[in-house]
Amino acid sequence: MGTTQSAVASLERADSNPTIRTVADALDALGHELALDAVPRPAGVDESLIRKQLELSPGQRLRELEAMAREARTLTLAGGRARGEHG
Q1: Are residues 52 and 26 in the same domain?
Q2: Is residue 87 part of a domain?
Q3: Cα separation of 33 and 24, whole Å?
Q4: What pLDDT, in 10s, does the model give residues 42-56?
Q5: Is 62 a domain residue?
Q6: DSSP string spanning 33-81?
Q7: Which domain holds residue 14?
């Protein structure tokens, strides 16, 4: 690597934070080549559901949201009754 033993030892510490260039140089000294690759991740959401919602008018989306809120309230109350809560 063309550096001192103490510099290499500092790279071996758990809290070491070397640059990519330093890692590449260390790998080169060991007969390896650093290869970085960027791979696209799948979307974190179901985009088909978003498209479906965007096909609705704002009024339709609002009515669906209100219906979901009513259902959530019904489930909340049912859960409370099942646990013996009074509300």
Answers
A1: no
A2: no
A3: 7
A4: 888 898 999 999 999
A5: yes
A6: -------PPPPSS-HHHHHHHHTS-HHHHHHHHHHHHHHHHHHHHHHHH
A7: 1-39
